Amino acid sequence: MDLDLVEISPKAEPPVCKLIDYKKFIYDQKKKQKAIKAKTVKVVVKELRFGPNTGEHDFNFKLKHAISFLEDGFKVKAFVFFKGRTIIFKEQGEILLLKLAQALEKYGVIENMPKLEGKKMIMMVAPKKRNK
Fold first, then answer.
1. Prediction pTM value
2. Which domains does the chain have, with CATH numbers?
């Protein structure tokens, strides 16, 4: 009959076996895995880099980019990079990120509040869930 004895569930008591065409079984399994992989949502993270003394115009320019990223469904990783002696302006960097968070309140949810990691102060913003 050109069928194979395939062990489906070896851990069951007693083990479960089926008489099926093994090549068709493997083909169907690969097809299911591919369908599952295609349905998974790929999370894209866009980065915005600020300096501790970023001006108002630059801030507004990057804010517009952040808004467009969040509307497109991407996460935004905003960070203030402290170069050399600018590390003394930690408070300014935190104020800048909190100002950004406040401006993005309508478009996204803050995942991580500003946190200093080495020379970077990082904040993550995820897009708000849309009602379909």
1. 0.65
2. 4-39 (no CATH), 45-127 (3.30.110.10)
